[in-house]
Amino acid sequence: MSHTAAVPSTSGAAETLRETSTSAGTLRYYDIGQGPVVLFLHGSGPGVTGWRNFRGVLPAFTEHFRCLVLEFPGFGVSDDWGGHPMVTAQGTVTPFLDALDIERAHIVGNSMGGGVGVNTAITAPDRVDRLVTIGGIGTNVFSPGPSEGIRLLQEFTEDPTRQRLVDWLNSMVFDQALVTEELIEERWALATDPETLAASRRMYGKAAFAAMMTAMASSEAPLPWARMHKVAAPTLLTWGRDDRVSPLDMALIPMRTIPSAELHVFPRCGHWAMIEAKAAFESVVTAFLRRVA
């Protein structure tokens, strides 16, 4: 069951924000267009929302698809469920699809959202038609970690100044002219909201990040990149050649181990391929999703 809710003033959304009660908790989302379902999953970082990640490409996708843009808990639109927001996000997709009576969907996931898409394709393969990821998955093969973008994100989380936010935003793109005053102010307003900042610190505070890395290294469970051979869905990996958050060498393991994976690399493009390589991204991804198997 879903109903409409007021759009947050910081979202910039012209469409109606909806919310639905799921078995895991209440989730907010946008629902635009008609046709096969494409579920858009956003990344992490200060002031991020699903709408901000994908609003620019939605007109191209709604020509062919029903587009659902999910807002993960703890990023300032859906309520914070507590715990580690990246972990919480992993358990949202199947309950969300159930709540909307959707059996199967294509998934387009940016960075963290791509990781959620991969996990969903492994744990609930009957719910995912095709999968598109935008940077952010796999693991460093040649480049050191944490990357420049992650280190700048940690610096902002520890000491959230406007300049630190600008430094991080500049690391997200190849063309720094995209980091406009409007973008900075929009991100700053949500990134410094006390509840949203607290959630960010549970992810990217230096102590929290180190603890997560230690826990992953000591766990007997396989690391996420070591399970990618279990993804059955046809998968398109998209990447910015100049990504300073998740360097291009991270694509090598998913490209090689996901059985039906294709890789498309956008030149002169950073971490936000759907924004910085907008026209090419729309062309490549809509063609992949509409391709006759």
From TrEMBL:
<dbReference type="GO" id="GO:0016020">
    <property type="term" value="C:membrane"/>
</dbReference>
<dbReference type="Pfam" id="PF00561">
    <property type="entry name" value="Abhydrolase_1"/>
</dbReference>
<dbReference type="GO" id="GO:0102296">
    <property type="term" value="F:4,5-9,10-diseco-3-hydroxy-5,9,17-trioxoandrosta-1(10),2-diene-4-oate hydrolase activity"/>
</dbReference>
<dbReference type="InterPro" id="IPR000073">
    <property type="entry name" value="AB_hydrolase_1"/>
</dbReference>
<dbReference type="InterPro" id="IPR050266">
    <property type="entry name" value="AB_hydrolase_sf"/>
</dbReference>
<keyword id="KW-0378">Hydrolase</keyword>
<dbReference type="InterPro" id="IPR029058">
    <property type="entry name" value="AB_hydrolase_fold"/>
</dbReference>
<feature type="domain" description="AB hydrolase-1">
    <location>
        <begin position="36"/>
        <end position="277"/>
    </location>
</feature>
<protein>
    <submittedName>
        <fullName>4,5:9,10-diseco-3-hydroxy-5,9, 17-trioxoandrosta-1(10),2-diene-4-oate hydrolase</fullName>
        <ecNumber>3.7.1.17</ecNumber>
    </submittedName>
</protein>
